[in-house]
Amino acid sequence: MDALRGIAMWLGVVLHGVMAYQVDPRVGWPRDQNISNGMDFIYEYLHSFRMPLFFLVAGFFARFLSFKIGNRAFLKHRFKRILVPFFFSVLLIVPLTSYTFSIYRNLSEQGNLFVNAFLSNLRWTGFYHIWFLYYLMIFYCLQLILQKTFKRVRIKSKYVNELFFFGSTAFLFLIQFFLYSEKVEPHTGIIPQINQICYYGYFFLIGYIIHNNVDFLFRNQYLRYAYLAIGVALIPIINTFEMLYFWKSLLLSLQSNLLILGHIAFFMHLFKKQSPSLRYFSDASYWFYLIHLPIVVGLQLLFFQFDSSPWIKATLVVILTTVFSMITYEWLVRYTAIGAMLNGKKYRAENPR
Q: For residue 32, which of 18, 47, 44, 45 has the smallest C-alpha distance?
């Protein structure tokens, strides 16, 4: 599950890395002259399950930690690991991210590009990718309130597999159909949205329930490839064929659940043993996600001037961003106060404690 959390966070680098090379990118995102339908497929694949899966894993570890150390210590732990990084990200990373997008918006303007971008950037433009920390804090508060209200009732269900597959599909369909007019997209504004709380909060709750039903994690291993294959096969169907929004909402909900179940089963099968390298990557992934977006967008803008395959460009964006993030994590973060804030205190091998 820890490996799943780390890789789900790193996949944000991949998702954002391909977006400039989509045929149909999100509004406002830099769009390169070299594009490919394959980039749209990768985006739709990752977008359909990655953030729901992340919130599910977050709910899993939230219950584990709160029952292990108690609600008061849990609150202090989350303050240090979530609220403080969120605060500094809003002060430092969000303005830098906004500035890279502002450069893109001012590419066709006369005058000094960087000055124009700075001047047009003096306004609030949202949390960008840091929105997930914002909603995590909301869910942690709701968790503590509900735990206190129900006096730490242990949610146990031998039908958690059926609850997840059928209940999630039905519940997510209702959210998708009644609270959204298109696909679920992150809301980066400061006012929490009820549809976002319902959608991602449901996955947080499912993760919370799964922690008390851990055998669920192993039930679907023999079906992992079937779940993944059907979920992937639904991508071109949903995005190619015209259909009533009722059916589209139903297929989107089914697709998300299939891909989440498939990836959980796949990871439980693949990572059966502890791995120091995987532990390292999982720790580093938090730093990767916090700093990656301005780097990704900056590289995409830099590569505008080169006429090359979108696959080469996207691959370079992902690799360069990952390498830069890894180097800065190792030398500037891991053994410093920043690393202690994100992942706990680490000691170099020559000075173990």
A: 18
Q: pLDDT band at residue 100, thresholds of 50, 70 and 90?
A: very high
pLDDT (0 to 100) of residue 353: 44
For residues 167 and 172, what is the distance between their CA atoms, to the nearest angstrom?
Answer: 8
Question: Cβ(21)–Cβ(36) under 8 Å?
Answer: yes
Contact 282, 244 (CB under 8 A): no
User: What is the Cα Rg of the chain in Å?
Assistant: 21
Tokens 């029952």 — which residue? 67
Confidence of residue 149 (pLDDT cuts 50, 70, 90): confident
Evaluate whether 199 touches 172 at the Cβ level (below 8 Å): yes
Q: What distance in Å separates the CA atoms of residue 180 and residue 128, rounded to the nearest whole number?
A: 20
Amino acid at residue number 61 = F
| pLDDT confidence of residue 27 | 84
Residue-wise burial string across 111-142, b where 16 or more C-beta atoms lie within 10 A, e elsewhere: eeeeebbeeebeeebebbbbbbbbbbeebbee
Which tokens hold the place of 87? 């605060």
* Three-class DSSP category at 226: helix
**Could you give the CA distance from residue 36 to residue 282 in angstroms, rounded to a whole number?**
31
> Who's near 317: CB < 8 A, 6+ residues apart?
17, 20, 296, 299, 300, 303
Contact (Cβ atoms closer than 8 angstroms) between residue 295 and residue 264: no
Instruction: Give the Cα separation of 293 and 325 in Å (integer).
Output: 11
Locate tokens 């590009």: which residue?
113
Q: Would you say 313 and 17 are in contact if contact means Cβ atoms under 8 Å apart?
A: no
DSSP per-residue codes, 10-51: HHHHHHHHHGGG-SSPPTTS---SS--HHHHHHHHHHHHHHH
97, 99, 102, 106: CA torsion to nearest 10: -140
> Tokens representing 187?
């809301």
CB 185 within 8 A of CB 51: no
